[in-house]
Amino acid sequence: MIPSPPLPPADKPPVRPRCETAVLFLVFNRPDATAQVLNRLMVAGVHRLYVAADGARPGHPTDEALCAQVRAVVMQITARWNCEVHTLFRVNNLGCSVAVSESINWFFAHETEGIIVEDDCLPAPDFIPFCTELLARYRHDTRVMHIGGNHFGPDAGSALGPKTDSYYFSQQVHTWGWATWRRAWQHYDLHLHALPTLAAHGRLRGSFSSQLESQYFLRKFWDLYHGPRPFTTWDYQWHFARAAHAGLTIMPSVNLVTNIGFGHEEATHTQDATDPHAALPTGQLHWPLRHPSRVLNDRPRDRQQFRAFLGGRLRAKLRGLLRPARPTAPAGAAPSSPVIVEPASR
């Protein structure tokens, strides 16, 4: 393992905006991506950070060193920025589904609302203040369960004008940078126990924008319900919680988070570097935010987004069939040293 470069002592705390909203940062074995995203969170003014890390996987010889380096990077950067940090560093590997869902449970055992960011999800400058304002605005509106940071339309990287709504209401869930409340997360069930009863009474069909979307997600839910254990995903269960309670989500009118993890050899679900969602550009909101006049699902936009998503999935499958096998890095390859951003002096 190559040690991270030493950091000089900080004489004065950094000058930066102050964000009082708590953030959960989910990390694992990618030091470079971890440093890049964490630096961005620090610059955004995050002062209260929860960091959860799964343990090294058996049979993966580089995991021990990489996981240790990730945790060292987290402690170095947060100390450099005088950030309050709470950690859940696991010794054993729980796997993606259990590690992530239990980390969010841990987060909401201490906080009533907050922002969740994974180590490959790089937020734009507007993401943290966007989530912070809307967490407060819809704190007691139980119709709204989720605030997303993604917009996958052709205008993802645009700059909004002052007369355009900053976001819209949806029934779709994106989790590459998002926020929610304890009141909503309490409905999460990793094992989808309520699925048979809800499906038998037809209570899930109206929770999607079209019959096609309903069929797609119901099939995913049933596959999980009857599928092998342990699960390899946690996010479809959050889709189910939203659908089971007919919840609304918030989608920004431009993209506020880009996924920098595509093509990484250790990626779980984002191996294809040519995916159209890889390194998607981020846009700019106009401040102050312009709020929709009604809390109402935009079904036409949901239908359009789902058709685009389905087309993208089909094209990705075709690329996967045509793509040659990807070479793997040597087992003894040493991890590189991440870049650590210094805070500005007073």
Automatic annotation (TrEMBL):
Lineage top rank: taxon: Bacteria
Which region ranges are annotated with the description Disordered?
323-346
Q: Does the keyword Chloroplast apply?
A: no
- Compositionally biased spans, kind Low complexity: 323-338
Q: Which UniProt keywords apply?
A: Transferase
Q: Name one GO molecular function term.
A: transferase activity
Q: What is this protein called?
A: Nucleotide-diphospho-sugar transferase
Task: Supply the source organism for this entry.
Answer: Hymenobacter armeniacus
